[in-house]
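Attaching the record inline, Q. Sequence:
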Amino acid sequence: MTHDLPGTMRAVRFDAAAKTLAVQTVPVPRPGQGEVVVKVAACGICQSDLSQLDGHIPARLPVITPGHEAAGTVAATGDGVVHWRPGDRVVLGAGRACGRCPECRVGGGTNTCESLEVMAFHYDGAWAEYVLTDAASLAAVPESVPLEHAAVLADAVSTPYGAIDTAQLRIGESAGIWGLGGLGTHLVQLARICGAAPIVAVDPLPAARERALALGADFAFDPADERTLTRIAEATGGLQVAFDCVGRATTMTQADRALGPRGRLVLVGITPDPVSVGPEILFVRNRHTVVGHTGYRMRHLEELVKLVDLGRLDVSGSVSAVLPLEEAEEGVRRLRDHDGNPIRILLRP
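Structure, as predicted:
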């Protein structure tokens, strides 16, 4: 049903050639077969948004609406959508199945697609009043969970949750986390919930380290301190899992050196830096594993909503600021400059 949708809306548009952001009036999308239009309540500003704005991730479209961490209410549904109704409170998964890869051809869908199309990169995102998405890329949000908190779950919490799944982190295993921005801060919380022990947080910012300790880290160290690797070894005997949420050659190398025998290094941060784990002889001798991780599955998002609903996970402190669409550039600046040490800055249409 689309008859209640307005004709136009406000949206933040990124011009890839000019590298500019501007709020423009654009048509409200209409849902096709199996699609849903969501009225956006809030959408986060993510480091990967900055990577596209800064050119580290090449833009796929000449002009696009950024934003892939969104929650809101269903505004209209397309033909074939039977599980959603206008007014339903939802959080949006940040991708849709390509429909062409081998997994999609056998009906795998979003969770197993080998060439997932990502919101705000392959198609318009949610720094807007309305956004179009697949019906299969939605998770229900109960009344007990504020939509601003649900928006934080989409990527900022679900990607590190997926990384824990990728790492196959087990109860009692030691875990190190490099980079304590949005991804790393939530990894600390989730590793605690999953029973990791001890948890080591690594970041150059004192405020970020203090925050990690308050949220459940057992130790917090400065990566620039020459004693950090020694201290990690003393605290853990060698990490069993290390998560690199920064993605720089220096952090990859340091994280790998902090691992014990048969340790697993999980690369979560997205940067243009080449993968580097230091001297090959050390990597081979210690039988380390390195694996890349991106994104999450819809069940991860649904499980996180349940954890927040039951009070097991508190993301209320993750909302660092809520700004109107017209202040998108200011939000980007704060994240880029680490102004106020933000976890997540949200835009509210």
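Residues 31 and 158 are 26 Å apart (CA to CA). DSSP finds ten helices and 18 strands in the chain.

More tomorrow.
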